[in-house]
Amino acid sequence: MKKENPTAALIIIGDEILSGRTLDINTQHVAKTMGQLGIDLIETRVIPDVEAKIIHTVRELSASHTYVFTTGGIGPTHDDITSESVAKAFNQKYVLNKQAHFLLEEYYGKENLNEGRVKMAYVPEHADLIPNSITVAPGFRVGNVFVMAGIPKIMQAMLEAIIPLLEKGIEVKSQVLTAYTQESKIAAMMEEVQNEYIDDVAIGSYPFVQGGNYGDTGTTVGVNVVFRSQSEEKIAQSVRELEKRFTAAAIKFEK
Amino acid sequence: MKKENPTAALIIIGDEILSGRTLDINTQHVAKTMGQLGIDLIETRVIPDVEAKIIHTVRELSASHTYVFTTGGIGPTHDDITSESVAKAFNQKYVLNKQAHFLLEEYYGKENLNEGRVKMAYVPEHADLIPNSITVAPGFRVGNVFVMAGIPKIMQAMLEAIIPLLEKGIEVKSQVLTAYTQESKIAAMMEEVQNEYIDDVAIGSYPFVQGGNYGDTGTTVGVNVVFRSQSEEKIAQSVRELEKRFTAAAIKFEK
Predict the structure, then answer these.
(1) How confident is the model over A186-236, as pLDDT tens digits?
(2) ipTM, two decimals
(3) Does A212 reach chain B within 8 Å, measured CB to CB?
(4) C-alpha dihedral over A140, A142, A143, A146, to 10 degrees?
(5) 3-class DSSP state for residue B14?
(6) Closest CA to B239 of B191, B199, B203
(7) Would you say A69 and A11 are in contact if contact means Cβ atoms under 8 Å apart?
């Protein structure tokens, strides 16, 4: 039987993602990190810089997951409304945090601590700071919600600092078996093996094209079959089962 | 006053995004396309290949947006459960669509129409097909929900085919003003201009680093100030207002 891992949801806050101006790469980084920690990332949402939407989404996902992570909207400008919105989501006052103020003053110098920078020292009343090893201005944790910057390099540094605080589960390992054939030709075999290992292994099927794109001529098609499980032994067994079927059907494959 | 545009939500369905194995690039393409059509993309969600989750998410977002788009999970294999889940979300039977079956038979040949491929002809009972100019297997529309493939090139072809069916709004135009300074130094100026144009223009502030990364030495920092509005005139006015302030403060900038 599988152990139940802690769960997580991720909220990407930012008009720049929803306008298509910026490609979100934070989801992939958080997803990979959660996988290594054995925390199941159940859902991610991208929402705009709109207070009511932030409050609603934080409350809903906070109630239904072990952890919630947010990225974006904690900078010095008028459109950075995440911190105040999260304070409201938890019915906490939005206050100047002395420790954050001290850190910013030390980093920028008292004479350069303008209004925008001071804004970055405001967090919910009962928040704990998350250190930022890149540009000092901290993120914070309140309840089970971790509020991080949107800039990928800063987000990654904050997530690194959060890791020791998180309850770990059993890491989900994965193995890829690549078959050089059309997906529909191995669909039935994959389903048989999936049904046999339904409690222990999740088998995903991801077709690809080499040397061109879908619909081009002169390309090689293939399928990456991804086996994911907490148990390396179950992965190995189910991989062997599918290899046997590939061999019997004279399908070319490689690990 | 702004005209109310139609709204949209996007649901990315796929374990491969939530495991971090695959970087989602469909969100950005849908976002840009919606912007051009004057349809406001309000939210995107990434959810796993889990039936109950798909049903719940489709119902919730379908009830609160003009349009919902989904990507992923309509292929030939056991883990492609989107079509059947969407049928259940609409309380419709999941049936073989004769037109889809005909298209697939014509494309692959009767002798090659294996079980996996026939699966791709199953859609909700009252669905309309969305053509797929790349690999034939169609998407479909049911109610206000448009179900598309997850492979970017195929998704893009399907979205192209959908465009004529959508009610258009007023395109949101944008202009970027780049300031070569730290974000906090222009925060107050941006806020003044934002407040002056609060009903017509959304001003977003996106810092960047050139020639390195955050925390490196020898880099140039700057801010892309993005003005977004249905009115080009209001954008031009608000840009001029901010330019005036930059000039007065001797801040280097360019359009």
Answers:
(1) 999 999 999 999 999 999 999 988 877 776 777 888 999 999 999 999 999
(2) 0.94
(3) no
(4) -30
(5) coil
(6) B203
(7) yes
Confidence of residue B3 (pLDDT cuts 50, 70, 90): low
- Mean pLDDT is lowest, of A72-86, B14-28, B203-217, for B203-217
Report the pLDDT value the prediction gives residue B1, as an integer from 0 to 100. 43
Q: Which residues contact B184 (CB under 8 A, 6 or more apart)?
A: A76, A77, A114, A115, A116, A117
pLDDT > 60? residue A1: no
Q: Does domain A173-254 have CATH number 3.30.70.360?
A: yes
Alpha helices (runs of H) in A19-144, residue ranges in sequence order: 26-37, 51-64, 82-89, 98-108, 115-119
Bridge-based pairing of strands B94-96 and A67-71 is unpaired
Domain locations along chain A: 7-165, 173-254
Q: How far is CA A3 from CA A6, A172, A193, B95, in A?
A: 10, 11, 22, 37
Q: For residue B217, give the amino acid letter.
A: T
Instruction: Say yes or no for a CB contact (<8 Å) between A190 and B77.
Output: yes
Q: Chain B residue with minimal CA distance to A204?
A: B79
Cβ of B214 within 8 Å of Cβ of A134? The answer is yes
Whole-number Å distance between alpha carbons of B99 and B52: 28
Chain B interface, best mutation among A26, A69, A111, A184, by max B CB count within 10 A: A184
What is the residue type of B238? S
Which chain A residue has the Cα nearest residue B157?
A: A214
Asked if B47 is an interface residue toward chain A (Cβ–Cβ < 8 A), one would say: yes
- Which one of 3.40.980.10, 3.30.70.20, 3.20.20.220, 1.10.132.60 gives the CATH number of domain B7-165? 3.40.980.10
- Candidates A47, A154, A214; nearest CB to B154: A214
Query: Could you give the C-alpha distances from B179 to A112, B126, B222, B246, in angstroms and in order?
Result: 18, 53, 6, 8
Coil vs helix vs strand at B228: strand
